[in-house]
Design a protein that fits this description.
By secondary structure, the chain is mainly alpha-helical. It has one domain (about 75-395): Na+/H+ antiporter like fold (Up-down Bundle). It has helices at about 1-15, 15-40, 45-55, 70-90, 90-95, 100-125, 130-135, 145-150, 160-190, 195-225, 235-250, 255-265, 275-295, 300-305, 305-330, 340-345, 350-360, 365-395. The N and C termini lie far apart (about 55 Å).
Length: about 400
């Protein structure tokens, strides 16, 4: 394949800008092709984008180097845009409506997989800090994947659907706080309770202040932006708001993704949330696939294909699935379909990838453990759509 060989040679040794263009072009084409294949197989497009990254990464073609500073920076922008978009889809009013049940499911869905994953990793010989990252990666639930699957099945507006969305958002908030704690523990090399308490306090305090103060500030900014005549002003300035909050979050000792998520959370319907989401979609279409592809590119298939990595990955998959399904039964007073809620909470998707990437970038995870966490993310995301579809068809009323 002379063309592929020429592209590979240019991407690996060509001039800086030309090489970057080739890499970005390869990521876009591969991500869209494999994403389309995934959609046609009734799977989330993100899975195809990750597989595209694996193909282009160190294990196979070697086109994409996730450690390249430019690629890493673009991937970081993709994470911020992704979490900002996730926040835009979180409705505080809907969360309050199903607050008790959703909160119970969310807390159980964080605690059970986290404890089980950490314990399983330690029993399999993983050190305390890497085991902490493995457990933390099991906490979150992908809001986007859960919403897409339930929407396709016509159950998004049901009581179970609202519980799942509310619990998934709360899961993400708790998960992001845990991510801040874990990141601080990894950087500092310690898990001292006092240090973790300060990080958790900073993360919680930042979210509270962002909601209390960020809402009114966003409203004032929105009124000013509406006076502007230039095209695309609302979307660009909303992204600027997200980037500023992400930077502030890091400055106060929290995580950038918490700032990005909070920015999306405070931009409610008063600020034309849907228009902002549409306006920022083009930016996300550019940067988010680069993030997913860079995550896939970091997978070392040789390191993953060892008994230890596969064993840890299988244990994490088991803990991840059982823990989330058990969480669906935690609100014992809830009269809805608890199994549907539990299964819908299983996919980790993009949020689990953020945890995995943080662990790899910080050095807490080696190639084998990173592959094990990636295996957990992929499997939990793959099994959810068919499992939910089968359950809904089995429990649907006859006639």
């Amino acid at each position: 394949m002379p063309v592929l060989r020429a592209v590979t040679e240019l991407a690996s040794g060509g001039p800086g800008v030309a090489r970057l263009f080739v890499v970005i072009a390869a990521v876009f084409v591969a991500a869209k092709v494999f994403g389309e294949v995934a959609i046609r197989l009734r799977q989330p497009a993100v899975l195809g984008e990750i597989i595209a990254g694996v193909l282009l990464g160190r294990s196979l073609l070697g086109l994409v180097d996730p450690a390249d500073p430019v690629i890493a920076a673009m991937a970081q922008i993709g994470v911020v845009v992704l979490l900002f978009t996730t926040g835009l889809h979180a409705d505080l009013k809907s969360l309050v409506a199903v607050g008790g049940v959703a909160t119970t499911v969310a807390v159980a869905g964080v605690v059970l997989p986290f404890v089980a994953g950490y314990g399983a990793a330690v029993l399999l010989g993983v050190g305390p800090l890497p085991a902490l990252v493995c457990g933390a990666a099991l906490c979150a639930t992908s809001v986007g994947i859960s919403a897409r699957v339930l929407g396709d099945l016509g159950r998004l507006d049901s009581t179970e659907g609202r519980v799942v969305l509310g619990a998934a958002v709360i899961d993400d908030v708790i998960g992001l706080i845990i991510l801040s704690i874990v990141a601080a523990a990894v950087v500092g090399g310690t898990m001292a309770p006092a240090a973790m308490g300060r990080v958790a306090g900073a993360a919680i305090g930042f979210i509270v202040l962002a909601v209390v103060l960020g809402g009114p500030l966003a409203t004032v900014g929105y009124k000013l932006v509406r006076r502007l005549q230039s095209t695309g002003a609302l979307g660009l300035l909303a992204l600027a708001f997200a980037f500023v909050l992400a930077a502030v979050a890091e400055w106060v000792g929290s995580a950038m993704i918490i700032g990005a998520f909070a920015a999306g959370l405070v931009l409610d319907d008063r600020h034309d949330r849907e228009e902002i989401a549409r306006a920022t979609a083009s930016v996300g279409d550019f940067f988010v696939p680069i993030f997913f592809a860079s995550v896939g590119a970091a997978v070392d298939l040789r390191a993953l294909a060892t008994g230890r990595s596969l064993g840890i990955g299988a244990a994490l998959v088991g803990c991840g699935i059982v823990g989330k399904i058990a969480a669906g039964y935690a609100p014992f007073w809830f009269r809805g379909n608890k199994l549907l809620v539990g299964i819908a909470m299983v996919p980790r998707g993009e949020v689990g990838l953020v945890f995995a990437q943080m662990g790899l970038a910080s050095g807490a995870l080696d190639g084998g453990l990173f592959g094990a966490v990636m295996l957990m993310v992929l499997v939990t995301t793959l099994v959810t759509p068919p499992a939910l579809s089968a359950l809904v068809k089995r429990t649907a009323p006859v006639g």
